[in-house]
What does this fold into?
Amino acid sequence: MAYMSQEGYDKLIAELQRLEAVERPKASAAIAEARDKGDLSENSEYDAAKEAQAHLEDKINKLKQTISEAKIVDTSRLSTDQVQILTKVEMTNLTTKSKMSYTIVSENEADLRAGKISIKTPIAQGLLGKKVGDEVEIQIPRGTIKLRIDNISIA
It folds into this structure.
């Protein structure tokens, strides 16, 4: 089961519709065009088009599975007492004194540029269940990071 926001769920639905309505017909047209070029046994264009179609169908199937397993979180019922999915965490790196802010989201909604990190990342895992004022040491690929939670809000 994947917990996500309504916004994240809506984006997945829109992406699925785009893949099925736009990309799938394009893939079929590419196969038909390559097939019209003759001998299929030595037609690399045809093979490439078939492979692209297989990747597209795989992507569509994975998206459908994610959507079917999605559980939309009602953000009005979330609490800011502790860090949990869909909360925005403002914190200070105690080593560098730099401030950072992340919203913890489902794996499908993660977007580092937008400040959204997957609940499965080491930082998110280290923050879950913690409260404002807590100091945590989290093991990340580059070593250990020491953070103090300054604020928790609803994203």
The beta strands are 2-4, 70-72, 87-93, 99-105, 116-118, 135-140, 143-154. The CA atoms of residues 36 and 106 lie 44 Å apart. The chain has a mean pLDDT of 91.
